[in-house]
Write the structure tokens for this entry.
Amino acid sequence: MAETMHSLSFSNPNPNPKKRSSGDDDGAAAENHRSLPKKPSPTSWGSDPAGNLANARHEFGEHGGVNMSIEASATFTVMEPETMHRMFTGELGPDRDFFIYSRHFNPTVLNLGRQMAALESTEAAYCTSSGMSAISSALLQLCPAGSHIVASRCLYGGTHALLSHFLPRSCSIRTTFVDISNIDEVRDAIRVGETKVLYVESVSNPTLTVADVPTLSAVAHEKGVLLVVDNTFTPMVLSPAKLGADVVLHSVSKFISGGADIIAGAICGPAWLVNSMMDLHNGTLMLLGPTMNAKVAFEISERLPHLSIRMKEHCHRAMEFATRMKRLGLRVIYPGLDDHPHHSLLKSMANKGYGFGGMLCLDMGTEERANRLMHHLQNTAQFGLIAVSLGYYETLMSCSGSSTSSEMSDEEKSLAGISPGLVRMSVGYSGTLEQRWAQFEKALTIVQQQDGNHAHANNAFSSYGKN
């Protein structure tokens, strides 16, 4: 550990860590009192993310509990001083149940990392304190000062600000924003030897543009560039690593958490990347310290087993609502609809049985009209909540241009296709579907009646002015 953090074995197939005995100076451990069949390595992940999660190593509690224990310690003791030296030289590490300090590795957080790697079919994963810390740590590790990134022009506002303002100012890392649906434009923007990362969202925030991950991966690798994909909108629905992505990022705060009560992130990718991020001298995770709290890791770990059930219902409700909204003549954007330009693409990439995602957009034309609809949806009909974020069991809605994409200039929003009246909805699953749809229709009817009254008043005023 004089040069790097201990190289951790993320694909350890043993279902439980072997506990050290008090006299374990050689790193040998006593067998745990429980055991399970050997688990597959990440190279044998199956086609269903839920099945991969079930095959991940199961961590029992300290006293044989079915749930793992929460390791709340910030620092860890050793029985002999020589052991500490061997840990700092990298001879002993977390793969042998030796821990130093929870900013490096914590047993509870480490186990969640194994689960996230299984979810995304990657060799390794490291969980962080927020989605933005996962994004910034990964990009700073992969992109040295003065290098170049090619990114989708339609991204979450915070990510766009990181790429367009913070990284150029702090690190001289420049970004060229492109239409990722135009593969020739993507290819032409990559500067061989200078560009380090091609960055996209699997389904863009908020316009729901779908990234052609296999094709983008082929272009990136042809040019010697890594493809980094933010998969926050579509956990379970898409598995970007299986489609060719090198790194998959998550804001775990969203669908994976599901409760709108946790801030967390995850970096899923090759073990060499995660280990490099733990380097004592150059590792972004080690030196910037975006540490996840063990209690948060435990909470998330308990929610992962039912993520597949939640995602299927999010997607089912979103598909049903989008279909009905379209029948009403509304301008609805949802990749599950046949008229979405990327419907066939998403269908070809999606994991079977999970649908097309839990996000949809309504374009109400103007911000004023969007705000009126959201007002009545929340305050009159109780359909959902006016709030940012997504993945909650209640429907959340916001006018993206004036909220989650407000970091972008008017020109940047126009190029990204974010209209002033675009309402982003994270479709929840509370209540019955018919109950929620009746609430939506009630609010919409009020808005349409108000539109009619406004039009009538304007016509009357216009007629009066002519007399």
In short: The chain has 15 helices and twelve strands. Residues 1-5, 11-42 have pLDDT under 50 and may be disordered. Residues 196 and 332 are 36 Å apart (CA to CA). The chain has two domains: 108-305, 307-466.
